[in-house]
Amino acid sequence: MTPRTKEQNEAIRTRRIGQILRAAAETYVLKGINMEMRDIAAAADLGYGTVYHYYKNKYDLLSDLLNMALDEAEKMGLNYLSQGSSVKAYGIALLGRWRKDPSLFVLYKLACEHFRELPEPEAAVFRERFRQGVITPLAEALGTITKDPRSDESAFLIIAGLVGCAGLSVYRRSADMNEQEIAILLLGSF
Amino acid sequence: MTPRTKEQNEAIRTRRIGQILRAAAETYVLKGINMEMRDIAAAADLGYGTVYHYYKNKYDLLSDLLNMALDEAEKMGLNYLSQGSSVKAYGIALLGRWRKDPSLFVLYKLACEHFRELPEPEAAVFRERFRQGVITPLAEALGTITKDPRSDESAFLIIAGLVGCAGLSVYRRSADMNEQEIAILLLGSF
Amino acid sequence: MTPRTKEQNEAIRTRRIGQILRAAAETYVLKGINMEMRDIAAAADLGYGTVYHYYKNKYDLLSDLLNMALDEAEKMGLNYLSQGSSVKAYGIALLGRWRKDPSLFVLYKLACEHFRELPEPEAAVFRERFRQGVITPLAEALGTITKDPRSDESAFLIIAGLVGCAGLSVYRRSADMNEQEIAILLLGSF
Amino acid sequence: MTPRTKEQNEAIRTRRIGQILRAAAETYVLKGINMEMRDIAAAADLGYGTVYHYYKNKYDLLSDLLNMALDEAEKMGLNYLSQGSSVKAYGIALLGRWRKDPSLFVLYKLACEHFRELPEPEAAVFRERFRQGVITPLAEALGTITKDPRSDESAFLIIAGLVGCAGLSVYRRSADMNEQEIAILLLGSF
DNA sequence: GATGAATGAGACTTCATTCAT
DNA sequence: CATGAATGAAGTCTCATTCAT
Asked: Which residues does UniProt assign to DNA binding (chains A, B, C, D) (predicted)?
């Protein structure tokens, strides 16, 4: 009855969404928040109507991008921080992932700017989720679990320093990031 | 009705331009590159037509902002780096200035993103001026003057790391920046 | 897999077209001219590609709807007006039909607005057919057959009044229309 | 100091809003809910950017139009119904006003369709205000104040009948409405 | 016959910029 | 000098329509 089966359609949808999200992350790196839907569609090799077939609007797309990335980010915390692995190893892993997956970099970048370029009701949600899923686990690994409300601050500073440094090569779109040097600069003491 | 003297007019102009530039920097910190001329005018407590009385257009204004800031940045290099003062002192001085003067922070922030959100012919000019006026002096102070074309990289990494960290409090618009902790994290070895 | 017979296919087509036309009329009542093809398909419980399997485009569908309704409307005129039946009975019959068949109501409604929301070349055709097939027969029954070019006006006024009143319950989608009261109000003198 | 005084600006704004509302009502009569902002701007002899200078969007404009018209409609109720004036006089007055002021006709027209073409949260507000400000006063004048929840129904039927009839000439954009004949048809018994 | 993924024309809306006062 | 009304280029987004399966 159905000319394409439900499964076929689902497969198409999954693939397209992947294409679009990847394209959006690349476009963000290139143009910043002013990226246009046309750019994203072109980067994904799709008509721009198609992007709207999958996402209601620009911020809906960005939202999905960030939520996916947050899933990844939380997983990394679990893998590297809760199982006795060192903070240094975690930092180096982050640098590697950012280089290979722009969407993950975009998440950390926006987080360091407190998601200030996003429309507000949503921004607050991301701020909170990022803090709980990424910052706090790192803070705990740093052994700085005091009841001081600024206890997360050090963890955030490390992330922000790494993001700042990594940005230099990400925005230059050069394949080689000076990961060794960044690690020495920022993670030498861990 | 009574016409103003030339001097009075000049004084007004100077004050207005200061108002506008400060407002623009604050607005950039708040909203990013998508800041609107209306926002800037409102932040400067001026009618929005007035901004155009002083600046031909948005990028003209941004240009002036960045050029002013570059003048300052170059002066800082001369003061702290060429006269035997330490890299650490320079870094701490930067943090202090960024906290007090948003326009200086904006310059360094855009520089770390290679001015990618600016229209291109102009962006290249800023990239070059920033490299020559800020990065290279720091690289020289670091004693890394080799003929390696990547010799400036380490200097840029330090700046980028500092900007990333400083951004945390700048974007939060909190008066207190954790300058001590940032200095230990990034400048400990100098 | 087993191919269907010609008769089976024909039966399917007929049923589908009925589904679609009914759905279109209901959707028009609900949303007005801005009804979407998706809405119609959903109301007909069909995939939205399917509607295009039967109708080339939106106005082709609307055209078919109105032509079918016009056939009905003309038949009603013949039944109630040419055979000595009273104007009042005709009016009451109209109210009953509109309540049960949205597509008939849609026709009269659009007619009272001179089909102004339809694309123009086509609108004129409907205006003319409605006048000849519905208005003039009623005008003749009213005994107002003068050569006065405005002789149809009274007939049209009665129809428009009835449509206005009937709309109250049709748009409210309530099953019970106050047919008695409407008849007294508008048809009392006939 | 101010190049145009506050009063001058206010005068301009008032005039422009009048222009725009008038143009919007005329355009609605011509094209229905699918009227375009371009059409409205053109009809008002303004650039379409100007319309957005005064109204955030299409439904904001329509909202203002309807609220203004509701003010008028409520005033008419007070003038004709609460002071012993007859229902018939009220009906005839309505016909006259609709002919001269399209925005008033648009209000009654949309009301008879229960504002179904407006976005829903807002539509409900208009439904309620129209009922309280227009229908109920008429119902009371009709002396049909029973506790029957359908007591307003007769009043609404009269309005709907008048709107249906008046529409014939309004949509035809003919200057002469057959007010006498409509009055005899619908208001003869009052 | 039936479906929904894909698409772009065209409408909606924003916002930098001009201009009259 | 100062202002805000006026404007349209350039984005955003909707939705009728096409098309592969």
From this structure: 36-55
